[in-house]
Amino acid sequence: MGSTPIPSSTLAHIDFRLYLKQHIREVTVVSYLKRLQRLSRITNLDNPEQVKNIICSYQCTESYKELLTNSYHYWVKYKGLSWDKPKFLREDKPIFVPLESELDVLIARPRLKLSVFLQLLKETGVDSGEAWKLRWIDINNENHTVNIHPTKNHNARTLPVSINLLSRLFQ
To answer: Which residues contact 101 (CB under 8 A, 6 or more apart)?
Structure first.
């Protein structure tokens, strides 16, 4: 591919980062920049047709191609380029659900902080982002509940937790 990749300093340029922050969350900005950096190593990002061919022929899942395409789409809009954004169909795969005994082994092995975090995920089924946002004032020791602040279009909710989890939280 005879073109020169765009230097990482260009992708990390403050204007593009600010542009992304206007449209997506900070954590997503970081992952989009990483994907664009990966693409810039193998193709010229200012050539949409070439990028489209690279993404479409990339040896990866359809889901990852979709993520690459979404990341690149912001670059195209930022640079004022035009392209026909390809569409990819995500594969519908069955979800692996471990046995409860397997989860208990997983929870018992790590150090205390991670172990308590994993137990919270198991008991409540919350998203990891929601679990990290948990504050001390969200824990109701008397009613054995936690107040969950939503992420990613989830709903705020109050969920019951075990006395065991509460005692581990307050260790």
So the answer is: none
